[in-house]
Amino acid sequence: MTTTLRPAGPPTATPDGGADRRWLICSNGRPVGTVRTVARRYGSYLVGRIEGLAVTDAARRRGRGTVAVLAAEEVLRAWGCQRAEVTVPVQAPPAHALALALGYTETNLHLLKRIGQPAQPASGLTIRPIGAEDFPDWLEATKAEFRAQLVRAGLTEEQARQRCATEHTRLLRQGHATQDVALRRLLADGRAVGSFWLALDNGRLPDGSPLAWVMTVDVAPELRGNGYGRELMLAAERECLAAGVRDLGLNVYSGNTVALGLYTSLDYRITHWVLTKTLL
Fold first, then answer.
1. Which CATH class is domain 113-275?
2. Are residues 34 and 65 in contact, defined by beta-carbon separation less than 8 angstroms?
């Protein structure tokens, strides 16, 4: 049996200078599945994504998924991608095992919660917007932390710098006044102790429900362990409800057991694994 990829349509150029193409997975010329390759540009380098891998039930367990992923990686290499990323739902442990077997490393987890009615702020704690005066310092600190996280996830310093600059420019086009974004600080007895960045329009779930996303939540290192992270998350949930959004997601880096423990204690559940691989 020979497994190959056949184009399901022409390639599409993405607004950032990348590419997007869908493929049929074929066995001896007969379609048995589909896969999609996407290249995203961050400054001068490209990151590839392999998405929508699906093999028909009758064709599974014959190595076709493995061959399809390897073929998709070759497409990404030909496009100039230096890394490949895959996102795997937790309902698909075999796909997670396949990615690990092919040399992918788990870097992130996606979590989701259907918000109920969060508690009101504890006594002495208040939330206030991050305005024009505070925004530059907040942004610089946020970028520094994001760059450090990207390096820990395997990017070079330069790749991390370019990806960070691209992402923040795209997501905060109007700075502190960007539409559908909430930037907030937490104050304890008037002293700033933490902050969060909330995207109130992060697409929709499969059932059509609007989805918000916690982009960052940060507590001053010397003040961690005092419950401020929990208060920030509850404040983000209140922001969502005020905007009419009941589903809130977030990303946590694998190995950050403290953050994962906080989120699971607040009833967030893991929905996806994110894995990456360097394309040599």
1. alpha beta
2. no
pLDDT digits (tens, 9 = 90+) for 131-179: 999 999 999 999 999 999 999 888 999 999 999 999 999 999 999 999 9
For the structural domain made of 3-103, what CATH number should be given? 3.40.630.30
pTM: 0.92
Q: What percentage of residues in the chain have a pLDDT greater than 90?
A: 88
Domain ranges in the chain? Answer: 3-103, 113-275
Q: Is the pLDDT of residue 270 over 80?
A: yes
The owner of tokens 């442990």 is 93
Tell me which amino acid residue 238 is.
R
Other beta carbons within 10 Å of 26: 17
Q: What SS3 state is found at 65? A: helix
| pLDDT tens-digit series, residues 44-96 | 999 999 999 999 887 687 889 999 999 999 999 999 999 999 999 999 999 99
User: Pseudo-torsion of CA 66, 68, 70, 76, nearest 10°?
Assistant: -150
Helix 257-265 to helix 228-242 angle (10° resolution) is: 50
Measured between alpha carbons, how far is 4 from 23 in angstroms, rounded to an integer?
10
Cα gap 28→36, rounded to integer Å: 20
Q: For residues 146 and 274, what is the distance between their CA atoms, to the nearest angstrom?
A: 17
